[in-house]
C-alpha cells in the first residue's frame, strides 16, 4: 500500500514540476513579447515575417495591425547611386604596409594559395566565412543546367564542380510557392553577355542587377532593364538586393527590417579584391542582420557590395565540398537546390 502511495506522490510531484515549468515558460514568453524590450519584439516579428514557412509564429502573439506597425518601423533606404567604376583600380598584390589589420588580413596570402583566402569570422554567436578572391576576372556566374523544366534547380556544389570552380556561393532567388523551391529564377539572369532569363520583356521589366563586366569590376545597377545592363557592360549577373554598399557608402538601415537569418553577400574592394561572405544560422534562430553584414563588409574594405539570397539557400562550396553549415534541412541534403551562383573558376 505504501509503495502505491509513494508512486502516486512521485507522479503528482513530477506532474506539478512539469506544469510549473510550463507556467514559467508561458509567463517568460508573455513578458518577452509584451514587455518593455522593443528590440526583442521587433527582432522576433521581422525574422518570422521574412521567412515563408514561419510567418505564423508572429501571428501567435500579435494582431495583423501590430505586425504591420512593427514592420513599418523597421526599414532601409535603398541607395540610388551609380557605381563609380573608375574608383576600382585592380591591384591585389601584397603591400609593404597596410591601412589596418583587416586590410593586412585580406592581402596577406595563405601559403601556397594565390587564388583565394578563407577568413573565419564571428557575427554575434554565428560563424561566418569571408573569402577574398584575388583575380576578379575569374569570378563568373554559375547556374543550374535548365530553367523552368519542372525540377528544383541544382545544388551549389554540383554547379561549382560542373563549372570547374574553386569557390562558389549561391546568388539569386527563385520561385518558391510550394516551399520546396523550383528551377524558375526570380528576375534577370545574365550569362556570358546574354540574357538567359526571362525570355522576353528585356526593355520594360526593371530590377536591381548585381554582376560583373569584362574587367572584373562589380556592377550594381538599380531599377534597370536587362538590355540597359548589357549596354552598361554587365556580362554576368542576377537580380537581387538590396545593395549594401555603393561607392563606399553603407545602406541606411532603421531598426532591424529583416531580423536574423543566414546571409550571403558579395562585394568588391577598391583594389579589386572580390569578397564572398556567408554567415551561418540555424532555423532562423540566429545568423546575422543586414546591419551586421554591412558592418563586416565595411570593416574589410568593401567599396561596393550587395545582399544575395540567404536563409536555407545559403551555400558556400570550396574544392568540391559544402563548406558552410546551412540550416539543418538544407545541410542534410548537401545544400539547397538553387538556380544561380557566383564562382571563382579555375
Structural commentary:
With 346 residues, this protein is of the alpha+beta class. The protein has 9 helices and 21 strands. The strands form 5 sheets. It has a 7-stranded antiparallel beta sheet with strand order 2-3-16-15-17-12-13, covered by helices on one side. Strand 7 (189-191) and strand 8 (194-197) form a beta hairpin. It is globular and about 60 Å long. The relative contact order is 0.18.
Residues in β-strands, percent: 25-35%
Distance between the termini: 79 Å
Low-confidence stretches: 18-37
| Tally of contiguous helical segments | 9
Order of helices and strands: HHHHEHEEEEHEEEEEHEEEEEEHEEEHEE
The overall pLDDT average reads 86
> Sheet bearing the most strands, described?
7 strands, antiparallel
Shape summary? globular
Rg estimate, integer Å = 23 Å
Strand order across the largest sheet: 2-3-16-15-17-12-13
| Oligomeric state as shown | single chain
Helix content percent band: 25-40%
Integer count of domains? 2
Structural class: alpha+beta
Give a short summary of the structure:
The protein is 27% helix and 28% strand.
Amino acid at each position: 500500500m505504501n509503495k502505491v502511495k509513494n508512486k502516486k506522490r512521485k507522479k503528482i510531484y513530477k506532474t506539478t514540476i512539469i506544469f510549473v515549468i510550463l507556467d514559467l515558460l508561458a509567463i517568460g514568453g508573455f513578458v518577452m513579447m509584451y514587455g518593455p524590450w522593443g528590440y526583442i519584439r521587433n527582432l522576433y516579428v521581422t525574422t518570422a515575417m521574412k521567412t515563408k514557412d514561419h510567418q505564423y509564429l508572429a501571428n501567435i502573439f500579435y494582431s495583423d495591425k501590430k505586425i504591420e506597425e512593427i514592420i513599418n518601423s523597421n526599414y532601409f533606404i535603398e541607395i540610388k547611386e551609380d557605381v563609380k567604376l573608375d574608383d576600382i583600380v585592380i591591384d591585389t598584390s601584397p603591400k609593404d604596409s597596410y591601412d589596418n589589420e583587416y586590410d593586412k588580413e585580406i592581402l596577406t596570402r595563405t601559403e601556397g594559395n594565390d587564388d583565394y583566402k578563407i577568413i573565419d569570422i564571428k557575427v554575434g554567436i554565428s560563424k561566418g566565412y569571408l573569402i577574398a578572391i584575388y583575380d576578379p576576372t575569374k569570378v563568373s556566374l554559375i547556374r543550374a543546367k535548365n530553367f523552368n523544366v519542372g525540377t528544383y534547380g541544382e545544388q551549389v556544389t554540383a554547379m561549382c564542380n560542373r563549372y570547374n570552380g574553386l569557390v562558389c556561393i549561391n546568388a539569386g532567388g527563385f520561385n518558391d510557392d510550394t516551399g520546396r523551391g523550383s528551377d524558375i529564377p526570380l528576375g534577370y539572369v545574365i550569362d556570358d553577355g546574354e540574357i538567359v532569363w526571362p525570355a522576353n520583356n528585356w526593355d520594360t521589366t526593371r530590377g536591381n542587377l548585381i554582376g560583373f563586366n569584362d574587367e572584373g569590376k562589380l556592377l550594381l545597377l538599380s531599377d534597370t532593364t536587362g538590355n540597359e545592363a548589357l549596354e552598361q557592360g554587365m556580362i554576368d549577373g542576377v537580380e537581387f538586393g538590396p545593395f549594401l554598399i555603393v561607392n563606399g557608402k553603407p545602406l541606411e538601415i532603421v531598426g532591424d527590417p529583416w531580423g536574423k537569418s543566414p546571409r550571403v553577400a558579395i562585394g568588391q574592394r577598391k583594389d579589386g579584391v572580390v569578397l564572398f561572405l556567408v554567415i551561418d544560422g540555424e532555423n532562423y534562430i540566429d545568423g546575422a542582420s543586414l546591419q551586421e553584414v554591412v558592418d563586416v563588409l565595411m570593416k574589410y574594405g568593401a567599396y561596393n557590395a550587395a545582399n544575395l539570397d540567404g536563409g536555407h539557400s545559403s551555400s558556400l562550396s570550396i574544392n568540391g565540398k559544402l563548406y558552410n553549415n546551412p540550416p539543418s534541412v538544407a545541410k542534410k541534403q548537401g545544400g539547397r537546390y538553387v538556380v544561380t551562383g557566383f564562382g571563382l573558376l579555375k
